[in-house]
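Ticket #4471: structure output looks truncated?

Reporter: J.K.
Steps to reproduce: submitted the chain below (139 residues) through the standard prediction queue, then opened the result file.
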Amino acid sequence: MHLFAYGTLVFEDIWQLIVGRVVQSRAATLRGYEVRRAEGDLYPVMFESEVSDESSAIENVPGFVYYDLTESEFQRLDDYESGLYYRRTVLPLLEDGTVIRCDSYVLPQRNLQYASELPWTQQWFAQHAKQRYMQRLLH
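Returned output as attached by the reporter:
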């Protein structure tokens, strides 16, 4: 199975800490979703966008597709992602235009209160939060 990751797992050192090995990956984007900071925390939450007008500007969620993960690796990822999310099938678009079926961790509607109004980007995390986040992971 493949994984579309959009948040902390796109950082190689965090990926290695959780999964324990390098896997083939490619940049991808996912349409129809939003990413925000978790309420009162450093990590992101992704949920389906409520914008229903196809002509409106929906930002693509950038991330990576990680290929051919094992069941035990997905179990480690499930444990890392906690019960806040559910793992569901999504269809991100690779840079060459190919759509690929993979799983991703999505915040369900019942947990939307955990999404703040603050945006979360990989750049923001790298500059302002990653060091503190890594300290929490290592302790």
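Triage note (M.O.): checked the attachment and the full token line is present. The two ends are 30 Å apart (CA to CA).
Status: closed, working as intended.
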